[in-house]
Structure prediction request, 227 residues.
Amino acid sequence: MINKKWMFAVGSILIIGLLTGCGAGANTNGGSEQVTKENRQPEEVKFQPFIEIKEENNAVIVNYKVKNVSGDSQKLTFMTGLQADFIVYDQEGKKVKQYSDEVSSTQAITEVVLENNEELENGFTIPDLYNGQFKIEVFLTAKEEEARVVKDFKVEKSLYSKGNGEYIGQMDPHTIEVKIKDEAVAFQLTEEAIQQLSSIKEGDKISFIFSETDIQKTIEKFILDSN
Prediction:
């Protein structure tokens, strides 16, 4: 009996030791994985974008620069003559305009080599934004790099404002009435707005861009649902 008890005790100690060793091995592997993740290097930044926005002469001026900060020369390949593009969004996140939608560019492939600390600069003039809050996203069209940058900005000195109301009806070929806060307001229409009017029905809720003088209010264009 004594021998059996002794053998049982020794066997128990051996089993506990094996289990403890397995657990230690598992902890060691987990620790090494954690160290690997912590030591993982962040993706190298090669280009640093900068953006400056200001209002001038009833337009928004955008100055966009991309600086090579890689420490070496870098090549940028453009598939068209358009080196940079932008998208403007309104407060609701809806796209107001995109530069590449409004301009044409050549299809020739061009390459630009930027030396270390050298900058590539592109400027844009946006003439017809209305007063309000916006967000602009600017980026390169290069195959190797976008250098995307996003910035909020406010337009305060525009000739144009955004209006909302209910379309009452047409008074004459160049004039309509819009219900705004329970008041019927007359608006003149530009040629662009007249062409858009065919897709609007009486009683529709409408949004539009308008200008205003001491004499009259003029709808420059309606903001139609792109869907």
